[in-house]
TrEMBL record:
Family under the similarity heading: Belongs to the P-Pant transferase superfamily. AcpS family.
Needed co-factor(s): Mg(2+)
Reactions catalysed according to its record: apo-[ACP] + CoA = holo-[ACP] + adenosine 3',5'-bisphosphate + H(+)
Entry protein name: Holo-[acyl-carrier-protein] synthase
Keywords: Cytoplasm, Fatty acid biosynthesis, Fatty acid metabolism, Lipid biosynthesis, Lipid metabolism, Magnesium, Metal-binding, Transferase
Gene: acpS
Highest classification ranks of the organism: Bacteria, Bacillati, Bacillota, Bacilli, Lactobacillales
Enzymatic class: transferase
Length: 118
C-alpha cells in the first residue's frame, strides 16, 4: 500500500551556487557515505549529484507529509547510488519500502519518492 508520494524539481545551479558560497551546505545536506560518493565526481556531475540528493530528500519529506527540517532533516535520510547508478534509500525514518527516482536535464533535477508498506 502506498503511504506517501513526493516529487521535487530543483535548479542545479542554485544548489551549486549555495554550496560554493557556503561550504557547510555539503556537510548539512549529505551524510558521510553520500559525501564519499560526491567526492568521486567533479564539475557538472558533482553539481548534479548534490542537487539530486537535495531534491530526493525534499521529495522524501513531502512523501512523509511534512517538509524538510520539520519532522525529518537532511541527515535523517541517506540515498546512495547502487552499482548501476540508481538511487537507493539506505537510511530513513520510514519503516517500509522506499522507491526513489531521479532525472536530470542540463539545468534541472526532478525526483520522486514513493513510500510503500506491505
Amino acid at each position: 500500500m502506498i503511504k506517501g508520494l513526493g516529487i521535487d524539481l530543483t535548479e542545479i545551479a542554485r544548489v551549486a551556487h549555495m554550496a560554493h558560497r557556503h561550504q557547510q551546505t555539503i556537510a548539512r545536506v549529505l551524510t558521510p557515505a553520500e559525501r564519499a560518493q560526491y567526492q568521486q565526481f567533479s564539475g557538472q556531475r558533482a553539481n548534479e549529484y548534490l542537487a539530486g540528493r537535495w531534491s530526493l530528500k525534499e521529495s522524501f519529506a513531502k512523501a512523509w507529509g511534512t517538509g524538510i527540517g520539520k519532522a525529518v532533516g537532511f541527515q535523517d535520510i541517506e540515498i546512495l547510488d547502487n552499482e548501476l547508478g540508481a538511487p537507493v534509500v539506505t537510511k530513513s525514518p520510514f519503516n517500509g519500502t522506499v522507491h526513489a527516482s531521479v532525472s536530470h536535464t542540463g539545468e534541472l533535477v526532478m525526483t520522486e519518492i514513493i513510500l510503500e508498506t506491505d
